[in-house]
Amino acid sequence: MNLTQKTFIGIFWNISEQLLSRGVGVIVTLLLARFLSPADYGLIAMMSLFMSIASLVMQSGFLTALIRLKETTQDDLNTAFYANLSLGALSYALLFVCAPFIADFYDEIRLVSLVRVTGVVVVINSFQIVQSAILNRKLDFQNQFRASLVAGISSGVVAVGLAFAGLGVWALVSQMLLGAFLTTVLLWHFQRWRPSLSFSKKSFLDMYSFG
Question: Considering the entire predicted model, what is its pTM?
Fold first, then answer.
């Protein structure tokens, strides 16, 4: 298969992932809306800015750098992997410490536990950055589509079940955690690269500035 064919196939799967993911998301949201209150969604909205900032700190451009580098070495991949894990742990630690202040800011004590639990998503996602980058470099959007679809449907079904059982906002938190976990596991299954014990300061600085 030549590059042009791979590109067109990659575009097809990329568009399919976006359309089906949004479709699944809409269906799950409509089902959840029958069991959850606006206040439950409001709690998630209060956390969204802080979660987004933590995710940006965790990624720090390494995903983009790995995709755009002309060539990548094992040292590059290892360095990005361990850097993302470290930044993910740091981001979560900051969320954990700042949770009471976030709760005070919104005058909503429940945000302390919600932020601390939901923040684990950032750590989970830090494990999938290199796998995602490699699949993107290969234009392998089909396996990313599979991972996204399976994770989206599975986490959505669980969330609806928990919402029906009366768990409220924790159904949404569970959906995020399970979705991140399943996506990571499936990406590791589809992309068999595994880290080894090496870290390059040069690679780190090059990718950090590149990203």
Answer: 0.90
